[in-house]
Design a protein that fits this description.
The protein is an alpha/beta fold. The protein has 2 domains: 147 residues, Quinone Oxidoreductase, Chain A, domain 1, CATH 3.90.180; 110 residues, NAD(P)-binding Rossmann-like Domain (Rossmann fold, 3-Layer(aba) Sandwich), CATH 3.40.50. The protein is 22% helix and 21% strand. Strands 7-3-5-6-8 form a 5-stranded antiparallel beta sheet. Strands 11-10-9-12 form a 4-stranded parallel beta sheet, sandwiched between helices. A 3-stranded antiparallel beta sheet has the order 2-1-4, with no helix packed on it. Helix 4 packs across helix 5. The structure holds NADP nicotinamide-adenine-dinucleotide phosphate. The site of NADP nicotinamide-adenine-dinucleotide phosphate has 18 residues, from helix 2, helix 4 and helix 5.
Length: 278
């Protein structure tokens, strides 16, 4: 499906591609009794110890889980692989799930499969929901969590966008709002501009009339990447090597010196941000 929104999102790990449709369905539970409801058997991406993801992650069957009175069982439609997901598995991210048997993944979009008898939120089978705030364990096929974890979202947006709406776009928004009071006409500079956060910065800045100066790394395809970022609304895009000049600010032309800089990379790429700042 051709995305209808300008936000270009990371490719999502599609756990259940065949269910990522606009069709509503009311699936049957795998089993239930008068007193209890259970999720269907699930598959999860788990780890027992921290380390390189390709060495410590495994896919495992998870037995059915009881919903309880206020539990909601959802079927995951798509969940992204964010850098922080990798860092959590590696054990280098400050907030991470307890071991052993930690289920990876932190955001994603799901479809309500069944609700417990005392659930009061207006959630029905077929609704699309996201965990908000994001919560651990989205790399699994069925999840049971309390009703207050799940927030209903529109189901007429591309599944990849719904799956990635919490972590990166909101980070971009908060970075633009929380540090410097920017007004239309001001400029910001960032490196790692092809990242999803970077692409969100470009688009959110554009709608506020804030100019963006973007730095990307030198690599095959950097010309296409420049073009793509400009189509998203970037005012200027430089590869790192283009900024290897004596007076880097001379390259800004008519753009104002940036009032705020975002560093996603470190090292020399971070010094370039500093050199360009107002
Ligand atoms: N709340 C938070 O604190 C928060 C939330 C979200 C994200 N983040 C952080 O924001 C950053 C971007 O996240 P994302 O999900 O948007 O990332 P992403 O889409 O995975 O993009 C990764 C970016 O890093 C660049 N990159 C990779 N290796 C590089 C290298 N060796 N040298 C220079 N650039 C390199 C990539 O450039 P190419 O296109 O050239 O490959 C791309 O721009 C990450 O550091 C992430 O942890 C923080």
């Amino acid at each position: 499906e051709k995305p209808r929104h300008p936000v270009a999102m990371a490719s999502a790990l599609r756990l259940m591609p065949s269910t990522a449709t606009r069709l509503r369905f009311r699936p049957r539970l795998s089993f239930s009794t008068a007193a209890s409801l259970f999720s269907p058997p699930s598959k999860a991406v788990l780890y027992d110890q921290h380390g390189p993801p390709d060495q410590v992650l495994r896919v495992e069957d998870v037995p059915p889980v009881e919903l309880g009175e206020r539990g909601v069982c959802v079927k995951m439609l798509a969940a992204p692989i964010n850098p922080s997901d990798i860092n959590r598995v590696q054990g280098v991210y400050p907030v991470r799930p307890p071991l052993p048997a930690a289920v990876a993944g932190y955001e994603g979009v799901a479809q309500v499969h069944a609700v417990g008898p005392a659930v009061t939120r207006p959630l029905s089978p077929g609704d699309w929901v996201i965990p908000s705030p994001p919560s651990f364990g989205t790399w699994q096929t069925y999840i049971v969590k309390p009703e207050d974890v799940w927030h209903k979202v529109r189901d007429d947006v591309p599944v990849e966008y719904a799956a990635t709406v919490t972590v990166n776009p909101l980070t971009a928004l908060r970075m633009l709002q929380d540090f410097v009071k920017l007004k239309p006409g001001d400029a910001v500079v960032q490196n790692g501009s092809t990242s999803i956060v970077g692409q969100c910065v470009i688009q959110l800045a554009k709608v506020q009339g804030i100019r963006t100066i973007n730095i990307i790394r030198d690599r095959p395809g950097s010309e296409e990447a420049k073009e793509k970022l400009k189509q998203l609304g970037a005012d200027e895009v430089f590869t790192k090597s283009q900024l290897d000049v004596k007076n880097v600010k001379s390259l800004l032309g008519a753009l104002p010196e940036p009032a705020l800089g975002f560093n996603c990379v470190g090292g020399n790429a971070a010094s370039l941000i500093l050199k360009l700042l107002r």
